[in-house]
């Protein structure tokens, strides 16, 4: 059966009978797990194995948000505590080489934990800039205030993921750093002129335009398209993300259930795909919402399939000593984080 251009979440720590029937019928491209879905390593492995069996694909895209700091679905006692992006930014300002090395090692160690559980994609790194006065939804998730610093550290993170078997997802294209409200709860409107955005927010993504996957921002940029958030704006995706930034990778929408998006769920899915997103994302596991999303989906045609398969090959499995990597990372970060 043809796969659908969607990644779905599920409600709990195992698949319900309804979910099994629904996912078998819709055949989503992949799945995403959140804290509510994650209890113990064994439980997660069983859940992901359920998803793989249901899809008939062993190399199934299974996503998680494991950035570190505030945004970490896997936490102690089963998994290590991980630093926020801002910690690496502080180290980088004192010693760029050490900052890059630490970011790379941390990504490798996250990858080790994720691959042991069956995850294949981490929705990180964040390329949004630190902007004074902006909403704290980005905050310490940012690697810094300049495009160069952010992109340099994000590249180290992405290389660490790819070298260790995890697909990175840069976010949130073309930049969420200036939002004054949280797009999970409200609709952000950025009034900054396009020319200023191009030399700052957009530039961080342009420097990482060769990334394999990217995620959109549910943000309105009033000087470019005052009527549509980036996720559903053909102008922003076509002119800014694809042309000006030059991003050619797989474009994933941010979560359709966030309050910044308006309309019915089938309309949300259709508008994302029509605007230029390759895959839509729905995270909360709500049955009624997922049923609505399914009505607005399209299949993955041969052209899109080829692109998906091509970027998937960028993942490697480079061997390294986890104990030594952890020890080196601790030494690098000890003055900045504990």
Summary, kept brief:
The chain is of the alpha/beta class and 338 residues long. Helices cover 41% and strands 14% of the residues.
Structure, explained:
The chain has 338 residues and is of the alpha/beta class. It has one domain: Alpha-Beta Barrel (TIM Barrel), CATH 3.20.20. It has twelve helices and twelve strands. It has an eight-stranded parallel β-barrel, surrounded by six helices. Strands 4-5 form a two-stranded antiparallel sheet. Helix 4 runs parallel beside helix 5, helix 4 packs across helix 12 and helix 9 crosses helix 10. The model has no long low-confidence stretch (mean pLDDT 97).
Tell me the major beta sheet: 8 strands, parallel, barrel
CATH class equals: Alpha Beta
Q: Tell me the Rg in angstroms.
A: 19 Å
Spans of at least 5 consecutive residues with low confidence = none
**Straight-line distance between termini:** 49 Å
Q: Domains counted in the coordinates: how many?
A: 1
Residues in helices, as a percent range: 40-55%
Summing up helix and strand content along with how strands pair, one would put the structural category as alpha/beta
- SSE order in H/E notation? EHEHEEEHHEHEEHHEEHEHEHHH
Helix segment count? 12
Strand segment count: 12
Topology:
Elements: E1 4-8, H1 17-26, E2 28-33, H2 41-55, E3 62-64, E4 66-68, E5 71-72, H3 85-94, H4 96-117, E6 121-122, H5 147-163, E7 167-173, E8 189-190, H6 194-199, H7 201-206, E9 213-216, E10 220-221, H8 234-244, E11 250-255, H9 265-275, E12 279-282, H10 287-295, H11 302-312, H12 322-333
Parallel strand pairs: 1-2, 1-12, 2-3, 3-6, 6-7, 7-9, 8-10, 9-11, 11-12
Antiparallel strand pairs: 4-5
């Amino acid at each position: 059966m043809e796969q659908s251009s969607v990644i779905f979440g599920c409600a709990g720590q195992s698949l319900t009978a309804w979910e099994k029937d629904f996912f078998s019928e819709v055949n989503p491209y992949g799945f995403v797990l959140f804290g509510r879905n994650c209890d113990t390593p064994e439980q997660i492995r069983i859940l992901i194995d359920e998803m793989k069996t249901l899809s008939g694909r062993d190399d199934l895209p299974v996503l998680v948000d494991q950035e570190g700091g505030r945004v970490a679905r896997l936490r102690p006692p089963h998994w290590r505590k991980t630093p926020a992006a801002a910690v690496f930014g502080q180290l980088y300002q004192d010693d760029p080489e050490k900052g890059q090395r630490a970011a790379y090692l941390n990504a490798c160690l996250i990858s080790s934990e994720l691959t042991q559980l069956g995850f294949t994609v981490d929705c990180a790194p964040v390329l949004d800039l630190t902007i004074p006065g902006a909403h704290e939804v980005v905050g310490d998730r940012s690697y810094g205030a300049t495009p160069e610093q952010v992109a340099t550290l994000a590249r180290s993170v992405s290389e660490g993921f790819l070298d260790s078997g995890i697909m990175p997802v840069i976010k949130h294209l073309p930049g969420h750093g200036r939002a004054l409200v949280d797009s999970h709860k409200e609709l952000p409107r950025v009034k900054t002129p396009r020319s200023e955005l191009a030399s700052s927010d957009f530039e961080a993504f342009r420097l990482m335009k060769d990334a394999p996957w990217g995620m959109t921002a549910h943000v309105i940029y009033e000087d470019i398209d005052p009527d549509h958030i980036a996720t559903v704006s053909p102008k922003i995706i076509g002119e800014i993300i694809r042309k000006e930034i030059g991003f050619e990778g797989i474009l994933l929408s941010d979560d359709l259930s966030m309050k910044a998006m308006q309309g019915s769920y089938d309309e949300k899915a259709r508008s994302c795909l029509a605007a230029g997103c390759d895959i839509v994302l729905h995270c909360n596991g709500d049955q009624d919402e997922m049923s609505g999303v399914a009505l607005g989906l399209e299949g993955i045609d041969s052209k899109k399939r080829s692109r998906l398969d091509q970027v998937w090959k960028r993942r490697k499995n480079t061997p390294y000593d986890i104990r030594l990597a952890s020890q080196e990372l601790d030494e690098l970060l000890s003055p900045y984080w504990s």
